[in-house]
Design a protein that fits this description.
The complex is a heterodimer of chains A (about 280) and B (about 260).
Chain A lengths: L19 H12 L3 E5 L3 E7 L13 E5 L2 E7 L1 H22 L5 H14 L11 E9 L2 E7 L5 E3 L2 E4 L3 H11 L8 H16 L9 E7 L2 E5 L2 H11 L3 H26 L13
Antiparallel strand pairs in A: 1-2, 1-8, 2-9, 3-4, 4-5, 5-6, 6-7, 9-10
Helix pairs in contact in A: 4-5, 5-7
Chain B lengths: L5 H4 L1 H4 L20 H6 L6 E3 L2 E6 L2 E7 L2 E3 L2 E4 L5 E4 L3 E8 H21 L7 H17 L6 E9 L2 E7 L5 E3 L2 E3 L2 H5 L1 H7 L6 H18 L7 E7 L2 E4 L12 H4 L10
Antiparallel strand pairs in B: 1-4, 1-7, 2-3, 2-11, 3-12, 4-5, 6-7, 7-8, 8-9, 9-10, 12-13
Chain lengths: ~280, ~260
Amino acid sequence: MFRNQYDTDVTTWSPTGRLFQVEYAMEAVKQGSAAIGLRSRSHVVLACVNKAQSELSSHQRKIFKVDDHIGVAIAGLTADGRVLSRYMRSESINHSFTYESPLPVGRLVVRLADKAQVCTQRSWKRPYGVGLLVGGLDESGAHLYYNCPSGNYFEYQAFAIGSRSQAAKTYLERRFESFQESSREDLIKDAIMAIRETLQGETLKSSICTVSVLGVDEPFHFLDQETIQKVIDTFEKVPEEEEDAGEGEAEPEAAPGAAGTGEQGGSGDQDVAPMEM
Amino acid sequence: REETSDRERGRGAIGVSEKMTFTIPIENGNGVKNAEADSQRTLYPYVTGTSVVAIKYKDGILMASDMGGSYGSTLRYKNIERMKAIGKHSLLGASGEISDFQEILRYLDELMLNDNMWDDGNSLGPKEVHNYLTRVMYNRRNKFNPLWNTLVLGGVKNGEKYLGMVSMIGVSFEDNHVATGFGNHLARPILRDEWREDLSFEEGVKLLEKCMRVLLYRDRSAINKLQIAKMTEEGVTVSEPYSLKTFWDFKAFTNPTVGAEGSW
């Protein structure tokens, strides 16, 4: 009930010990379109839903290559995401230049988190409104991290962020125990199936999603439309029937999702604010 | 800007700090105007170490150097260790200015400390250390304030052997056998003929001793007190100092001017 009094400044605590501006920034992440990451012992797959402003425009880029061995998928304010990707590329290339060796992804993620934390403790700044799924390889194997606007970071076997990500998370929770030993192909298939969960009935086509892979002996790269369509074809043999099943699962998620947008006010109904993707 | 990048953390190494600003000397015909400028940069070395020789062998790296520190033509210091272990995976040997070598050891100490503090299963191996040193040496050279050393960096990590060299002007490369200073002229030819991929430890030591003996005979800044360091997957061991047997009763040494009276 005190929310409105203590949410003007990022440097103002609420009586219950919360920084509301930071929490609002995390809401921005939930408004963006879904991004999913999964990892096995040797590979990391990042996938996202392609969202376009209108039928006339091309879709927003949400997955960026940071280096041959690191990729990042974003959800939230894509402009903030682009700036942070540039920072990550810069850190990675500087490390490569000095040490002629790839920057361990765990160390990059800590620097990113420290950078985000600064914005939660300066009155003239605002937190970054973007969540980052950072996937990468280092000496100790494949890793997937999630970086929050709050400056926290967590390591995951699999994770989903953005709107309707709960459906994808439910799917991933059922299957994550098998991911560590998964083959590369199975991992990609699982990623695309998780994407399907967030679509809530829309037809799953290769044009609607972007998938990227990186692994031991496989530098970061995007999968082309053909490859993705082939994977889709293996489990979407009868599109109509699959859709019904998908819709049933996704239904309970729709209600809380709408409630979330209603509370935000500014975003209004189904329309997403122009700067968010 | 609040970001800390590796570049900024290594600032001390490249020489950016309040005291070490480098002022350009101004010449006006009567000598250099701002004399402090000159006293701040390295013009010539004072206490120097002579050659370091290193080879790859079956299990890793072998490196040899003597323990002398010359002060010009005086063999002044006889207990200087010119080879040091860097972290778990690397071994650094240096010839040239000893104080600059000690400075480099301080930079590497800081580097390895920060690397260990991450405690995340990743560690800087010999290739990374070699590259870091190349950057440091080259950057100092560009400021006309070199670290007056030639460095030999060897190591083993995850079964891979690495041996490289960096000079004071930032020239850097890797090879199966490297040497500094006089070693380039006297030891490398021997190594080019006799080095093999699968030398055993004993064979490697014998080969290095052969090189060091030639250097002892012919390099006047060499002393007969040397150490041999071994670097394998298990770690680094630097031997106790010992001397080589030398033979001075060659006829040519007993009467060197027999063929040319009056010469020396």
